Amino acid sequence: MNTSIYIAKRYLFSSKKMHAINIISGISMMGVLIGSAALIIVLSAFNGLEKVVLNLYSNFSPELRIEARMGKTFDPNTPYFKSLNKDARLFSYTDVLQEKVLIMYGNKSFISTLKGVSDDFLKNKMLDSTISDGSFTLHSDGRPMAVIGAIVQNNLSVNIRDEQSPLQIYSPRRGTAVSVNPEDEFTTRGILSSGVFSIQQEFDDIVVVPIEFTRELLDIPVEVSSIDLNYNKGTDLDNVQAEIQDKIGNNFTVKNRKEQDTELYKVLGGERLSIFMILTFVLTIAIFNIIGTLTMLVIDKRKDIAVLTSLGADRNLIQRIFFFEGMMISIIGCIIGLVLGLLFCTLQQHYGLIKLGEKMTVVDAYPIAIKMVDSVIVFLTVTVISAIASGISARLSVKGLDDIKQDL
How many Å apart are CA 337 and CA 378, to the nearest integer? Predict the structure, then answer.
């Protein structure tokens, strides 16, 4: 075994008697342990929350979306789109027609997005998890039904159980000139609500209805705003996206989920980085306590240092002893912290030890998603910071070495 590592290990794990320096070393190790455990737990909790948010968004954001590069709508009845609908890899192929509309309910009004969807939209079994009241039903007894977002429901005070008070939806009549009677400029249709969904503010102002209802209201019998595609598990979406884009040409765009909502992914990435930097700063403070610990160790081991130098030990050997001492304190604390942190995350995943403040339809305990890359990042972060702190301490350990020799 390397001499410097052997001596550093003896200093750290001396079993003859407990010195104050051993207690201080233990406290420094505990600081690294707590910091490492906290970092892996918070990162895993953020991963879990991120996963929940993205899963909720995926209910309304398809894996791939085809849109016209120019204009708001396009004709989906082309040979290629018809053949695409028969692709064996497809899980769902949804025609979407959406537009801003005015919704009246009682004496209240609200500007909302009306989203008309074809039947394949309901293949997503997770839609029910977004419902806070009622059910996700678009047809009932042959009648079209609407599922409204929580913002729409809050602004209009909609009672989904009142079958005598449908939503009145207004859309500008196409090709109509300015009229003396403003009502002549709008097409109006009534529709009952079957449920209320709640995801995020971006989606909660949407009203989902059958596409036939939207076509009648907007007087758009054929065209769509987009085609939403979801594929079976195991499908290489990057290859499919490139394949579709190559075949439909430059008149259309094919967007994956990240491209459909770049701001959301930027926000999530920025929040993750901010959390990591803040906790790393706290961990850095804990690790730099090692400098004080090693300084006290140097004072405590003055005679040992003098004996070693008398036996031929040079400055580099003395520096390495205290460098490895600091690294051992940090690495051992980090490994134990990671083990305890991952153990807690596993227990939280299986038993939901810590509950959220209020009952939710999606999760009732803090979600956790363990990614081993986070453990690697935490370990490397601790190693780098520890190497810097231990290097500084090691340099300080050989200062005044001549005075130590004279004290022998």
Answer: 10
The domain segmentation of the chain, as residue ranges, is 3-57+264-406, 64-256
- Whether this model's pTM surpasses 0.90: no
Cα 184 to Cα 172: distance, rounded to the nearest angstrom: 9
Convert 349-388 to b/e letters by CB count within 10 Å (16 or more is b): beeeeeeeeeeeeeeeebbbbbeeebbebbbebbeebbee
User: At residue 272, what is the residue type?
Assistant: R
What are the respective helix, strand and coil percentages of the chain, to the nearest 5? 55, 20, 25
What pLDDT digit, counting tens, does each position of 338-386 carry?
999 999 999 998 887 887 765 555 567 788 999 999 999 999 998 998 8
Strand partners for 224:
74
Looking up tokens 């340099």 gives 395
- Residues contacting 130, CB < 8 A, separation 6+: 56, 59, 136, 197, 198, 199, 361, 362
The pLDDT tens digits for 23-69 are 777 788 888 899 899 899 989 988 888 888 777 777 778 999 999 99
What is the spatial distance between Cα 399 and Cα 402, in angstroms, rounded to a whole number? Answer: 8
Q: Please calculate the CA angle 246-252-258 and round it to the nearest 5 degrees.
A: 85
Nearest to 259 by CA among 46, 66, 393: 66
Using DSSP bridges, classify how beta strands 143-149 and 186-197 pair: parallel, antiparallel or unpaired: parallel
Q: Is residue 163 a contact partner of residue 194, using CB atoms and an 8 Å limit?
A: no
Query: How far apart are the C-alpha atoms of 303 and 322, rounded to whole Å?
Result: 15
The CA distances from residue 223 to 74, 83, 212, 246, 252, in Å, are: 5, 17, 11, 22, 14
Output b/e per residue, 196-229; b: 16+ Cβ within 10 A.
Answer: bbbbeeebbbbbbbbbebbbebbebeebbbbbbb
The CA distances from residue 43 to 71, 303, 331, in Å, are: 42, 45, 19
Cα–Cα dist 233/55, whole Å: 15
Q: Which two tokens stand for residue 369?
A: 């998603």
Q: What is the rounded distance in angstroms from the CA atom of residue 80 to the CA atom of residue 308?
A: 82
Count each helix (H run) and each strand (E run) in the chain, helices first. 12, 11
